[in-house]
Amino acid sequence: MTMGCQMNLADSETLARRLLAAGYQEESSLERADIAVINTCVVRQASEDKVYTKLAELRSWKRPGRTLALTGCLVGKSGDDLRSRFPHLDAVVPIGDYDSFISDLEDRYDYLLGEPLPSAGRTGVSHFVNVIQGCDHNCTFCIVPAVRGREVHRPQQLVLAECRKAIEDGARELVLLGQNVDDYRDPGGAGGLAALVQRVSSEPGLARVRFMTSHPQDLEPELLHVMAASESVAHELQLPVQSGDDTVLRRMARGYQVRHYRAIVEQARSLMPDIGLYTDVIVGFPGESRPAFENTRRLLEEVEFDVVHLAQYSPRPGTHSARSWEDDVSAEEKRERINELLTLQRQIAARRSSRWLGRRVEVLVEGTDELGRPYGRSRQGKRVAIKPPAPGAAARLGVVAAPGALVQVQVLNTSAGQLAGSLVQARE
Question: Domain range spanning residue 172?
Answer without folding.
Answer: 126-354
